Amino acid sequence: MSKLKTGMFLIIEKLLHFCIVPQLRARLLKLFGARVGKNVRIYEITLINLNSGFKNLIIEDDVHIGTGCMLDLAGKIILRRGATLSPRVTIITHVNPGIKHNSPLASLYPSSVGNVEIGEYAWIGASSTVLKGAKVGNCAVIGACSLVNENIPEKTVAFGLPAKVYKELKFPEGE
Known about the structure:
The protein is an alpha/beta fold. The chain has a single domain, classed as Hexapeptide repeat proteins (UDP N-Acetylglucosamine Acyltransferase, domain 1). A hairpin with a 4-residue loop joins strand 18 and strand 19. The chain is globular and about 55 Å long. The chain starts with a helix and ends in a 7-residue tail after the last strand. The model has no long low-confidence stretch (mean pLDDT 94).
């Protein structure tokens, strides 16, 4: 039954690629089990590791997910209010070097899953990757082509391989 269920989720994921309206794609994901807020725009994306369906995808209000993003739903992905994923952002919530085919690397790097959280109004630059267990703080900016493998504090600009904080953001009073 589990393989049948996973197969159904994979079919749904493929069918979502035919939906050309980003707001409708968000509503369909909500219908299929994701938690999706209001005014969410999800362009054509790829969802992987759908063993639990879409329930590990939690998207608050006013979120934008750009074209070509890949989201790994082995663990939870939480996108807080106003978060923006630029095109081709990848979020990976698990590691597995080949445990099912007895890779010797599995003894050195055991399989694990961790959630990823993108804070309120955080902006992840194009072609960046966020790895399992990382949290990007509220109003943080991640530069394009960066690798986030640890927590990034709020109101900072971080970039690089791996991403490091280079600047604190100063907002006008009252924001």
